[in-house]
Amino acid sequence: MTFDPEYEPFFQPPGWIVGPVWLVLYTCIAISFSTTLSKRDELDNYWIIVSLFIIQLALNLIWPSVFFNSQRYLLSLIMLVFMIIFTLIYAFLIYKTIPYASMLVWPYIAWVSFAALINAAYYIEARG
After folding, report:
1. How many other β-carbons are positioned within 10 Å of the β-carbon of residue 106?
2. Does residue 10 fall inside a structural domain?
3. Residue 5 — very low, low, confident or very high, per pLDDT cuts 50/70/90?
4. Contact in structure between 36 and 49 (CB atoms under 8 Å)
5. Is 8 part of any domain?
6. What does the alpha-carbon distance between residue 102 and residue 94 come to, in Å, rounded to a whole number?
7. 9 part of a folded domain
8. What is the pTM of this model?
9. Chain segment 41-66, per-residue pLDDT in tens
């Protein structure tokens, strides 16, 4: 499978919007995570929470090279699924103590879920 720059799912947003959206999302998750770090003594399972966040962030940073450079659409889709799962668990575990920090990652979860749909469309197109 190779990346086909000519193919785009009909629901893929225009490229010019992606950068500004990521700027807002990264700002929100940075505020959430820094707030979580500052509430260390108030959170049960602190190290699990921090580990989940760091793992999903590492997957987020690696994902573009897997999707665009290696054209491993199934692997990149699996990475997105784990990002969603780990961020959902992170949001759930911090919600009771710091609900606003949890809510700050909800748009990120939605955007990554949307990215998973786009990734799945590329995977299906490449297989077909």
Report:
1. 14
2. no
3. low
4. yes
5. no
6. 6
7. no
8. 0.93
9. 999 999 999 999 999 999 999 999 99
